[in-house]
Amino acid sequence: MIPILSPAVPRHQILRIAAATSLLAATLSGCANEALAPLDVSRVESKTPADSISYAAGVYGGWWDKAPLPGQPANLVLYSTKTGRVVQTVGSPDPLSAKNMESLKSPKWAENLIIVMDPSANSVVDAFAIDANGNPANRSTRAVKTGGYDGWWNSTPADGHTAGLPVETVQVNTDTSQVVDAYNRTTKITRVSYTVVPDPAWPKHSIVIIDTSTGKVIANFKINADGSPMGSGGRGDVAR
């Protein structure tokens, strides 16, 4: 829209405003008609949540069922770490090579997992954990590799006073319900007999510290896929 100007406005200003208006119109028109280059997603890591994966009649459905984006692989295999075999194919993937199998059988993967791989690029493009019935589960896709965690619950203060500190604790991974470490302050042993009773209220992808004398959680913190504490700044929860 060209502005309506008073007759008192000098002619050179009218020309300047008209030119600016024309330039703006051309710019807007150019944006509307410009052909955008397709986005290459080949190096974008998938963050597919478990609830977006469907499972029916032994077939997993997900993003691979849709038209592939530029750079997104279309020929895939879905491999089960539990059975050690391909349970589903998408498109026409290449046969698995020795290099593919080396990647799929890596000890970094959890035991009950579906790995989505592009064999031609030897690239894992997605992974999701499954339950005993094969249904997608909201659990970590990597096995936790750690010897345990050090914190106020299993350390001795510099002054040597341990009054009020727990005598015996266990550290439980909430994704696997497994004891990853334990400590008895009196006997100094780290092998403790303790039966874990999972609690639905426990936070996912976390470690809970349990005082075995009461069975109560006295500390908890989130962990990364490799087992390292997430954002542990200053709290003393350090992986060993």
What features would you describe in this structure?
The protein is α+β, with helices and mostly antiparallel strands and 240 residues long. The chain folds into two domains: 48-138, no CATH class; 151-232, no CATH class. It is built from two helices and 13 strands, in the order H-E-E-E-E-H-E-E-E-E-E-E-E-E-E. The chain has helices spanning 11-33, 98-104; strands spanning 54-56, 59-61, 76-80, 85-90, 113-118, 123-130, 136-137, 149-150, 168-173, 178-184, 206-211, 216-222, 238-239. The strands form four sheets. The protein has a five-stranded antiparallel β-sheet with strand order 4-3-5-6-7. The chain has a four-stranded antiparallel β-sheet with strand order 10-9-11-12, with no helix packed on it. The longest helix has 23 residues, at 11-33. It starts with 10 loop residues before the first helix and ends with a strand.
How many angstroms separate the termini?
Answer: 68 Å
* Helical segment count: 2
- How much is the average pLDDT? 77
> Considering DSSP H and I runs of 4 or more, what fraction of the residues is helical?
10-25%
Percentage of β-strand residues: 25-35%
Shape: elongated
Structural class: alpha+beta
Low-pLDDT stretches are 1-7, 11-15, 17-32, 40-51, 232-236
Order of SSEs, N→C? Answer: HEEEEHEEEEEEEEE
Q: Order of strands across the widest beta sheet? A: 4-3-5-6-7
Q: What summary fits the major beta sheet?
A: 5 strands, antiparallel
Number of DSSP-assigned strands: 13
The radius of gyration is 29 Å
Number of domains: 2
Protein name: Lipoprotein
